[in-house]
Amino acid sequence: MHSVDAEFPAAPVVVSKDGEAYAIWIIIAMIAAVDAVWLRRLGFGVVKLQNPMVFFIGLFSCLYLFYAFVRPNHQIAAVQQSLAQVLSFSVVLGLFSYLTVTLRFPLIDRYLAHADAAVGVNWLSWFFWISGHPYLNFTLAVAYCSPMLVLFVLVVALPVFVGIERVRELIWVYVVTALIVTAISSIAPAESAWIYFGVPDRVLDVNHLAHFAALRSGRMTEIPIAEMTGLVTFPSFHAAVGLILIYAARGVRYLFPLSFAINGLMILSTPSIGGHYFVDVAAGLAVVLFVIIGLRLAEFPRSP
After folding, report:
1. Are 43 and 102 in contact (CB under 8 A)?
2. Whole-angstrom distance between the N-terminal and C-terminal Cα of the chain?
3. Cβ distance 293 to 12 under 8 Å?
4. How far apart are CA 190 and CA 188, in angstroms?
5. Using CA atoms in the order 68, 71, 76, 78, what is the torsion angle rounded to 10 degrees?
6. Tens-place pLDDT, residues 138-156
């Protein structure tokens, strides 16, 4: 039914115990509390709460409670809880990332552009080459929008192939990576390679640039939850998630090739479709490797 390559052994520890699942909820609650205090101190409001993610958080939470206490089924309950955690964490950390932009640290775009140039990468040439191939550009654009869908598929499918422990590992790597990436971005913000190289008019979706500029200038005092988008440029969280999803599917027949293909394209799409510098991509991948190695060496998360 499944095949796990010996070259990619399962994590040495599992994360399926309730204590460690609850630890994720504690992290989510702590970030939400920081968001609330920060919003109050800034005098900011939160509007447009009709985000589909909020609906699904409620749905998956209800399904978790049903299968945990009404009609007990450990695997289904664990999957529903995992889905609720991923969405809840994404919302509260997304709000947190918006708030960090108000810190207004100096932009580092020119340093990132110089770093690309120093290793012989010409971002502008790459952008125009991709833009000049419509079918490739479209394929990369679709791949760039795929992470959440692939994440959902893996959370549901991995328990069938290799057990819920792999899902818990996926969530821990996702959470720790996101926290590190957001922390780095908050003190080393970058606007976008699109802006630096003067090509935003050639891009279809640049909504996040307006939010980023409005937050830094003080013009945005109400954060629209339904319209929140990624504001992190360095390191690239898109690239990081791509590697996380490839790693999570390691050794699993059918799932790994599919995840590798989709997320490989998504990582490739990050500079042109996401407006990231190439060094953003490298940094995002490096953070994931650091987190994976760190968690494995520390043998965390642990089962009691």
Report:
1. no
2. 29
3. no
4. 7
5. 10
6. 999 999 999 999 999 999 9
